[in-house]
Amino acid sequence: MKRSRAIVERTIVERATDDFLRHLKERNVSPHTIKAYAGDLDNFAAYIGSGTGSRDWKAIDHLAIRGFLSYLYDRGLSKPSVARSLAALRSLYRWLAQEGVVEQNPAKLVATPRLPKKLPRVPTIEEMNLVLDGKMPEVASFPERDRLMFELLYGCGIRNSELVGINLDDISLSNEAILIRGKGKKERYVPFGGSALAALSAYLPWRQQLLATLERNIPGKFVPALLVNQRGGRLTTRSVGRIVKRIAVAKGMSPDVHPHTLRHAFGTHMLEEGADLRAIQELLGHERLATTQRYTQLSVKQVMNVYDQTHPRAK
Predict the structure, then answer these.
(1) Residue 245 annotated in active site
(2) How much is the pTM?
(3) Which residues does 214 contact at the CB level (< 8 Å), separation at least 6?
């Protein structure tokens, strides 16, 4: 006699979560984002349990969601983690509204936990010059490429994802500018200076030699990427992060340095040297000036020094 298996009916939250995560995968959303959302929404489904809310979306109101956030705090989760869970719920409800499953998004009625403002530690101009002047350290597996990587991240203020997306054809040597594809598929031209041009001139022959050798040994069409790995493929953002950290530490910088640190340094140092905030906004590809204004917070020391030196009542 066969043993019967109990069929456990999945709640509406669990079923919606499965469909929502499948939707995100079809949209090629980052696996890290999907994994984070999955954990947050599973916690919410477990919190709702098998009560009325498990059968009717109308029973899950903003009070239930606030209760869920309180439950997370009681479990010892930090404010950033709770805020991420709320963001996951808002995204779920937004998708459910698009699918016609719900009419309102109760998660929008719940305030996001106020997060402490932590300003990133930005390397000084002297520290950046120390990294870029002289030879690359021995830990650099491809010194010419790695120097160019630093020159573009710091010299152009581009994002890690924008860096690895640069193709050889995107570079205009005559105009000393690079076509950058930013967030939302928005394109912008970013100028590069003499140091980046020198690094580019040193790297391109090595790149051509590497690809020519690979072509002889493994015939095939290689990627048009500017920055390639030893196998001729496009560098990944994760690889760039590892390379930047390894070289920065070898040059005596903090182990907290990552590609975005160099982007912050670009904006901060330009502001310190007198660049217009709107010009920095354009170069960084920020949609809103408020985003760029974060860099003013990083230059408070400079502002105080200017005040002390110039204002009549400060003397």
Answers:
(1) no
(2) 0.61
(3) 222, 231, 232
